[in-house]
Specification:
four-stranded antiparallel β-sheet, Nucleotidyltransferase, domain 5, 12 helices, elongated, single chain, Integrase_cat-core
Length: 393
């Protein structure tokens, strides 16, 4: 306001030009000319409005911000954000609702593409396009090494050019929020046990309590309003690793809120942008690397890795790796193959008609005849498949 008054005084009292005033005060010539024109307009109508000129000098400057163009959020950037939103809509139509790009993912992708834009600008634009949904979480307190939560999650990936439905086994430590996840072809008993064996080996110890929802691989049947009978697989795990287990109430996912959130974070961070892989092993490596990056991210003042380092010495000792497999007796057909889950696996041709003991786990089949191993095959999860691999003795 003092600058505006100085401009008027110099122009009317000292007869200085707008150019000279602009140069002396270090202001834009357009700004100086605007103040002079507005004051002269106020003087012109002073006869009908006595206090017009005086009032103008006493008022602070006004700026017309409604006509300004957004410098960062230009048309090209808006179209790029719209393209990401269209990708999300396409994913919804394909059944990939849990692998959508969130605002922070879109912002990071824009930065990688070279756009100079702030996160708030991206959020405001997306909010104007999409109505947000909000969810509330209540923090609880947990003792180190006491409790860990487990859950399954479905994910759809393109493996070697084929659309595949796979399953994530996700673990989250309640105290440190440390996350670990593995990919499996099936959400079955063998995968359930194998995931726990791999997790406890990764941690170098066992948590005192594991928390589950009412999944079929953990709950055999309901024996009362709140009583459940565990499956044989869960009893075997609990007995071997000596941990207690707890089930959530029906439709109460908030009772294992850590892993509920982890499922969303791990799946999105790992497979929202990248979901094409040459093989399952490549996807598995990518998933583990993503978990390491998530655990290295700061949460308030410490990372999940740092907090897990505090509770790791308090874990119960790991007794070793529990064997997780099924035993089947299968007959060799005329084509020198055994059939398991509609898939055929070759064995030596001199065993045609013989009965073989087949040890089946989540990754492979091992065939035995009279106590001697005669063939080993990677397990196929396709239907009516004849693996081309030769039997490995």
């Amino acid at each position: 306001m003092a600058e505006k008054q100085e401009i008027i005084i110099r122009y009317h009292r000292e007869g200085a030009s707008a150019r000279k005033i602009s140069r002396d005060l270090g202001l834009s010539r357009k700004t100086v000319s605007k103040y002079i024109a507005e004051y002269e307009q106020a003087l012109a109508i002073q006869q009908s409005h006595q206090a017009t000129a005086d009032t103008y000098l006493a008022q602070p400057p006004k700026y017309r911000t409604g006509f300004r163009h957004k410098r960062r959020l230009h048309e090209d950037l808006q179209k790029r954000i719209d393209s990401y939103l269209l990708q999300n809509e396409e994913k919804k139509r394909q059944g990939l609702r849990k692998q959508l790009l969130l605002k922070q993912d879109i912002h990071q992708a824009l930065l990688k593409e070279g756009y100079q834009v702030g996160y708030t600008t991206v959020c405001n634009y997306i909010r104007s396009k999409v109505k947000p949904s909000r969810e509330v979480f209540i923090r609880q307190h947990y003792e180190p090494a006491h409790s860990c939560e487990f859950d399954w999650a479905e994910v759809r990936l393109q493996i070697a050019g084929q659309n595949r439905r796979l399953y994530l086994a996700v673990f989250t430590a309640c105290y440190s929020n440390y996350r670990f996840a593995l990919l499996f072809e099936r959400q079955d008993t063998l995968a359930f046990q194998a995931s726990h064996v791999a997790f406890f080996a990764h941690c170098g110890g066992v948590f005192r309590q594991m928390v589950y929802d009412n999944m079929r691989v953990a709950v055999a049947q309901f024996t009362g309003p709140h009583e459940r009978e565990p499956t044989l697989a869960l009893r075997q795990l609990s007995s071997f690793y000596h941990y207690r287990y707890r089930f959530c109430n029906i439709a109460r996912g908030n009772e294992k809120g850590h892993v509920e959130r982890s499922v969303e974070v791990v799946r999105r961070k790992a497979f929202a942008e990248k979901y094409h892989f040459a093989n399952l092993q490549e996807a598995q490596v990518h998933l583990l690397q993503t978990c390491e990056q998530i655990n290295a991210t700061y949460r308030e003042t410490k990372t999940a890795q740092a907090l897990f380092a505090q509770e790791k010495p308090l874990l119960w000792a790991n007794p070793g790796e529990m064997s997780c497999y099924l035993l089947e007796t299968l007959r060799v057909d005329k084509q020198a193959t055994i059939c398991y889950k509609t898939n055929h696996y070759s064995v030596p041709d001199h065993l045609v008609g013989a009965l073989l003991e087949v040890k089946i786990d989540a990754q492979q089949l091992i065939c035995f005849y009279q106590g001697k191993k005669v063939a080993t095959h990677p397990r196929s999860y396709l239907r009516h498949n004849w693996p081309d691999l030769k039997p490995e003795a």
